[in-house]
Design goal:
The complex is a heterodimer. Chain A is mostly helical. Chain A has 30 helices and no strands. Chain B is built from six helices and eight strands; from the N terminus they run H-H-E-H-E-E-H-E-E-E-H-E-E-H. Chain B is globular, with a radius of gyration of 18 Å. The N and C termini of chain B lie far apart (70 Å). The chains are: A mainly alpha, B alpha+beta. At the A-B interface, helix 1, helix 13, helix 15, helix 16 and helix 23 of A face helix 1, helix 3, helix 4 and strand 4 of B. Chain B: One of its GO terms (cellular component) is nuclear cap binding complex. Chain B: Residues 133-143 have a biased composition (Basic and acidic residues).
């Protein structure tokens, strides 16, 4: 029972690792068999997690095992042997780089805990190990890095690839003769007891071979926004290549992973981090939280969690944390010019939601510099999008009140519909009479056929949109009108015409129209990329609509696939029952028919999904190529704000939907991302491919 | 031992509360079963002026919102400070309970709770005066919820007395 508890704790609270290893050490000193069984059980668990693609959990298990060396439970030479087996993976051929990456990462990330002990016992072997690792890191392909960086600028803090950073940290630790002072090591206090214990040897552990369906963790970039110059008073922030920095960040990430569902507990645990008096804890916490929020392809947890967690932290430390957060916001604003567009999106959403919890209080005047540059530049664009999101959470007049008058140009339009037929003074406009007729017909609950007749004769859609607003009762009527691609595009154009000052409404209506099958996903994609929408192309709501559309398509495919799986399961169960009952042949026949139908449905849905991505990528390629050619012939710099936005939006499609896109790589490579493509565009595709290698 | 381990996987923000709808057609067990599977949230302490658009914007942060039903005064048919938010999936509703419950909308701390599912008629306040019960008896002054509570309003200016 104690074994189970310790194991569970090892998995669930990795930040308290050394407490539990000490406990196991003391138990082992008392009872050698307990220690042996415990180690065996951990090895079994390690095998299970690796088999089930639970690589992040496996890291903690190996780290636990390595700390058991410090507690005299496991003999150092056998740990070194395990590490040697892990590193031998780097010699394997024809395996994805991410596989070798993981094994190297595991070994390096254990060294802050156990490096000293292993070097004391087996320095020759350890030197050999490190030199093998160095060789691997030198050979490693790093095409993927630009796609994962939050900022494109190297200053003030380089966005380092995670293995490079960890290697530098371990190198420094080695130079410091493995002296590591940050990790709490309760076992030191019990050394007199523990050193009497008999140690166990780890059984030889061969890493499981590579399986084609293995899902190794994706590479990462280490997010840094603070250094020792940023915390004005108090303890100094450990350097970017210090092992302390690694351990602190690891532990803070672990705390969030353990408690993210319970924000009060999470905040309290973060703020009570042991050893907090020696480090500028608030800065570390804010950096780790933003690091997760801005992580590419996606944050480890849902975006809104981070907003609420930061609010909770501000509540618990009202005298210090809000200031650090304000400082961080200021820094992020200053570096917007080189920030990845996807990360800017998340910053917009976070900042506006955060402000809405604090009466929108902010020193906008500090950002007056954004008023003096072209409105398409990142800073004014950011402020504009923030104000739009703030307005959505409140109302137009509130926004007018909270910003200085100088910011008037950045205030969003009042979100009312624009419908020329609504204004009675325009009664001379053609169609006004029809509009009244139709409105009355609808109010008098005329049948769908009657309304359809009127509308078909005159093909007037605006009245419907105006009257309906959000109430989608007449979708049957609309469905008939929009059977053709032209019809679909037309209705999308009309929706935009009427609601162009109310982007939220456009998003809601497009969502409803997809769900009621009035328009299909490809139609929405074509519309967003059309010339009509070119002037809106860089606005955030456009991309929210596109990604929402892609997500709906993906969910649709998954839903039908699930139905198919369930039907197949049912059939299997039926066939088992058949042996016992005689009159289930009918049912079986029905099920087989159903499975055939569902199979067709799945294929059709997947075809639609593939087509959607093809449409989107094709449009991107067309737009980008046009821009690049135009710039080349005019000898103009390609890097306009529009271009940066567009190329990063292309990256965003790959990153946000990488799981789905993986299935269609063959088609994409053959049809679209061929060698003839401009190298700027091809580079994005190559970076994406490099994520999985 | 298992109690302690459960504490490690705790998810208390998602638990059902003590509130049970007295008008629910069914027994306690049935109601609780529905609450534990529900995709619908009751949202309380809204300002009377909070719009459906604002609710949609905030609650979309935890997932796709299927529909919103604004709570109405039974007599006046105007917003009376609560609403229902229905999600397509339970998981999205759970995120709302974890991360939107207890935060601000229109500068007010709103409260979310599981609802057994919207039925026609449940969009009306159940207080005697038409609004919510809580607005009948409260003594404080809340400008975003019609000022003083209904009972307090009557006490301040009881019927049939000239108040010059």
């Amino acid at each position: 029972m104690q074994k189970q508890a310790a194991q569970a704790h090892a998995r669930l609270l990795p930040e308290k690792l050394t407490v539990y290893t000490t406990l196991v050490g003391l138990l082992n000193a008392r009872n050698y068999n307990f220690g042996g069984e415990f180690v065996e059980a951990m090895i079994r668990q390690l095998k299970e997690t690796l088999k089930n693609n639970l690589y992040n959990e496996a890291v903690y298990l190996v780290r636990f095992l390595s700390d058991l060396v410090n507690c005299h439970v496991i003999a150092a030479p056998s740990m070194v042997a395990m590490f040697e087996n892990f590193i031998s993976v780097t010699q394997e051929e024809d395996v994805p780089q991410v596989r070798s990456d993981w094994f190297v990462y595991v070994v390096l990330s254990c060294l802050p805990w156990v490096g000293k002990e292993l070097y004391e016992k087996k320095d020759v072997e350890m030197d050999r190990l490190l030199s093998q690792i160095e060789g691997f890191l030198k050979r490693r392909v790093k095409t993927h890095v630009p796609m994962l960086q939050v900022w494109t600028a190297e200053k003030p803090h380089p966005q380092e690839e995670y293995l490079d950073c960890l290697w530098a940290q371990i190198q420094k630790l080695k130079k410091d003769r493995w002296q590591e002072r940050h990790i709490l090591r309760p076992y030191i206090a019990f050394d007199s007891v523990l050193c009497e214990a008999l140690q166990h040897n780890l059984p030889p552990f061969t890493p499981p071979g590579h399986m084609p369906d293995a899902q190794y963790p994706m590479p990462r970039v280490i997010f840094r926004m603070f250094d020792y110059t940023d915390a004005p008073e108090g303890p100094v922030m450990p350097g970017s290549h210090s092992v302390e920095r690694f351990v602190i960040e690891e532990n803070l990430h672990c705390i969030i992973k353990s408690h993210w569902k319970e924000r009060k507990t999470c905040a309290a645990q973060l703020l009570s981090y042991p050893g907090k008096n020696k480090i500028p804890l608030n800065y570390h916490i804010v950096e780790v939280i933003f690091g997760e929020l801005f992580q590419l392809p996606s944050p480890p947890h849902i975006d809104v969690m981070y907003t609420t967690l930061l609010i909770e932290l501000c509540k618990l430390q009202p005298g210090s944390l809000p200031q650090v957060l304000a400082q961080a916001t200021e820094m992020l604003y200053m570096r917007l010019d080189t920030m990845n567009t996807t990360c800017i999106d998340r910053l917009i959403n976070w900042f506006s939601h955060h402000l809405s919890n604090f009466q929108f209080r902010w020193s906008w005047d500090d950002w007056a510099d954004c008023l003096t540059v072209d409105a398409e530049k990142p800073k004014p664009k950011f402020v504009k999008e923030v104000l739009e999101k703030c307005m959505r959470l409140s109302y137009h007049q509130r926004i007018v009140d909270i910003v200085p008058p100088t910011f008037a140009a950045l205030i969003p339009a009042e979100p009312i519909f624009y419908y020329k037929y609504a204004i009675e003074s325009n009664s001379s406009l053609p169609g006004y009479a029809v509009t009244i007729t139709v409105s009355n017909a609808i109010k008098n609950r005329a049948s769908n056929e009657e309304i359809l007749t009127i509308l078909k004769e005159l093909f007037i859609l605006p009245p419907l949109i105006f009257i309906m607003g959000k109430k989608f009762q007449f979708h049957e009527v609309l469905k008939t009108l929009t059977e053709s691609d032209e019809g679909k595009l037309h209705i999308l154009r009309v929706v935009y015409e009427v609601w162009r000052n109310h982007p939220q409404m456009i998003a809601v209506l497009v969502d409803k129209m997809i769900r009621t099958q009035i328009v299909d996903c490809a139609a929405v994609a074509n519309w967003l990329f059309s010339q009509d929408m070119a002037h809106e192309f860089t606005r955030l709501y456009i991309w929210e609509i596109l990604h929402s559309t892609i997500r709906k398509m993906n969910k649709h495919v998954q839903k039908i696939q699930k139905e198919l799986e369930e039907a197949k399961d049912k059939l299997e169960k039926q066939q088992h029952k058949k042996d016992m009952e005689k009159n289930s042949e009918d049912e079986e026949g029905q099920l087989e028919e159903q499975i055939e139908r569902l199979q067709e449905k799945v294929e059709s849905a997947q075809s639609e999904q593939k087509n959607l991505f093809l449409v989107i990528f094709q449009r991107f390629i067309m737009m980008l190529t046009e821009h690049l050619v135009r710039c080349e012939t005019g000898s103009v710099d390609i890097s306009t704000p529009w271009y940066k936005n567009c190329i990063e939006r292309l990256q965003q499609i790959f990153l946000m939907h990488h799981v789905t896109i993986q299935q269609y790589m063959g088609t994409l490579e053959n049809l679209l991302f061929t060698a003839e493509l401009d190298h700027h565009i091809l580079a994005v595709y190559q970076q994406f491919c490099a994520l999985q290698l | 031992m298992s109690v302690k381990l459960n504490a490690l996987c705790s998810d208390s923000y998602v638990d059902i509360s003590q509130y049970r709808d007295q008008h629910f057609k069914g027994n306690r067990y049935e109601q609780e079963k529905l609450l534990k599977q529900s995709h619908t949230l009751y949202v309380g302490n809204l300002s009377f002026y909070t719009t459906e658009e604002q609710v949609y914007e905030l609650f979309s942060k935890s997932g796709d919102v299927k529909r919103i039903i604004i709570g109405l005064d039974k007599i006046k048919k105007t917003a009376c400070g609560f609403c229902f938010v229905e999600y397509y999936t339970r998981a999205d509703a759970e995120h709302a309970m974890r991360f939107i419950n207890g935060t601000r909308l229109d500068d007010r701390i709103i409260r979310t709770d599981w609802d057994a599912g919207f039925k026609e008629g449940r969009q009306y306040g159940r207080g005697k005066s038409g609004g919510q019960v809580r607005d009948e008896y409260r003594q404080d002054y809340d400008p975003a919820r019609g000022g003083y509570g209904k009972l307090a309003q009557q006490q301040r200016a009881p019927e049939g007395r000239n108040s010059f």
